[in-house]
Amino acid sequence: MIRSVVRGIGSALPRRIMKNTDFEGVVETSDEWIVQRTGIRQRHIAADDETTASLGEAAARAALDNAGLTPADLDLIVLATSTPNNTFPATAVDIQQRLGMRHGFAFDMQAVCSGFVYAVTAADLYLRGGQAKRVLVIGSETFSRILDWNDRSTCVLFGDGAGAIVMEAGEGAGTIADRGVLAASLRSDGTHKEKLYVDGGPSTTGTVGHLRMEGREVFKHAVGMITDVIEATYAQAGITSADLDWFVPHQANKRIIDASARKLGIAEEKVVVTVDRHGNTSAASVPLALAVAVADGRIKKGDLVLLEAMGGGFTWGAVLLRW
Q1: Which of 44, 192, 210, 250 does the annotation list as catalytic?
Q2: Which residues contact 85 (CB under 8 A, 6 or more apart)?
Q3: Residue that is last in its domain, among 139, 171, 203
Q4: Are residues 167 and 185 both part of a single domain?
Q5: Are residues 86 and 210 in the same domain?
Q6: Are residues 158 and 229 in the same domain?
Q7: Residue 131 lies in domain
Q8: For residues 182 and 124, is the Cβ–Cβ distance under 8 A?
C-alpha cells in the first residue's frame, strides 16, 4: 500500500528574540509569572521585512535541502497558517512563486494551531490517492501581527516562525512497521468559537482584528480533547503510549503538555518541548518542535512519532507516523 513518508524537514525563525523581561514595563507582568503559568521564556518576533511567506519560503528551502530535492520535484504545497500575507491569494501560492515553481498546485489550510496536523492529513490523502507524488507541507505564522500588545493575558504567549516537511509517496506493507503516516484523527467543534478567536475579518469588520482568548476555558477543555483524539488514533493503529518513541505536541503551554502526557501515560523523556524558546507559534508549533528534535538527534529514522495539536474553533487532531 502507499504510505506518505517524510523525506526532509526544515525550519525558520525571525531574527529578533523577545525575552519575558522585555515585557516588563510594557504590560503588568514578570518573567516569573510567565514561566510559572506557561513555561515560556522567550519567543521570536518578525521584523517588518519578515512575513509568513518569507519565513515559509525559508523553512521550505531548508526542508528541500534536507531531502536532497528541488522545487521541480514537488507536485503540491499545503501551507497551514492563520496569518496570511494577504486575504487572497493564498500565501501558499506566494511561496510557490518565491520557490520558482511553475507547475503543480498550492493552497492554504486554515485550522489555527491545528493547521499543520490538518495539512499533514490532507497531504497524506493526496499522496495515497495518487494526486501527487511529493508534497511540501508548511506551517508558518506571524501571530505578532494580530496581538493586542496591551493585553497581558495573550501578548506574552505567542511568537512567530515556520517549519516544513517534504512528504513523498512510498510503498508499505500495510503494517505498523511501515515508514510514513500510519493513522490520524481530526475533530472540530464550532460551539467553542468565542473562547479563542480574532475579533476582525473581511466579511465582518473589514479589519484584521486582534486575538482574543478565554485562557481558563481553553485550558479546561484542552487536556480532555487532546486525550480523546490521541486515543482514537491509537485505536486505528492498534498501539498504546508504551509503543511511542516520541510525542511532539502543540507548544502552547507547558502545563497542558505535562497534563496531557500524564493522562496518556507518556513518559516525560519521550515528550518534545520547545515552548520555552518559541512560545506558541500556532500552525508552526509542531513542525518547529519536530525540526529541533530531528536536528539534535533525538528523532531518528524508524522512530514512532505522535503529533498533536489543538486550536481555535475549536479544532484538534493527532497524526501517528514512523519517521
Answers
A1: 250
A2: 51, 52, 53, 91, 94
A3: 171
A4: no
A5: no
A6: no
A7: 2-171
A8: no
- pLDDT for 139 equals 99
**Residue whose entry in the numeric block shows the C-alpha cell 493586542:** 148
Burial 28-39 (b: 16+ CB within 10 A, else e): ebebeebeebbb
Asked if residue 222 and residue 144 are part of one domain, the reply reads no
Catalytic residue among 20, 85, 253, 280: 280
Active site residue 280: yes
Mean pLDDT in residue range 107-114: 98
Q: What is the pLDDT of residue 270?
A: 98
Taking the C-alpha atoms of residue 168 and residue 170, their distance in angstroms, rounded to an integer, is: 6
pTM of the model: 0.98
Q: Choose, from 44, 113, 155, 278, the residue flagged as catalytic.
A: 113
| 66 labelled catalytic | no
Number of alpha helices (DSSP H) and beta strands (DSSP E) in the chain: 9, 13
Please give the tally of structural domains in the chain. 2
Q: What is the pLDDT of residue 220?
A: 92
Strands 160-171 and 134-142: antiparallel
- Average pLDDT score over residue span 65-71: 98
pLDDT above 70 covers a percentage of the chain that reads 100
- For the segment 71-97, the average pLDDT, to the nearest whole number, is 98
Active site residue 250: yes
Whether the predicted pLDDT of 237 surpasses 90: yes
The average pLDDT across 171-187 equals 98
CATH code: domain of residue 45: 3.40.47.10
Is residue 296 located within the same domain as residue 212?
yes
- Any alpha helices (H) in 151-214, and if so which ranges? 152-155
Q: What is the pLDDT of residues 41-59, one digit of tens each?
A: 999 999 999 999 999 999 9
CA-to-CA distance for 139 and 166, rounded, in angstroms?
12
Residue 25 pLDDT class (50, 70, 90 cuts): confident
Three cell numbers at 235?
485505536
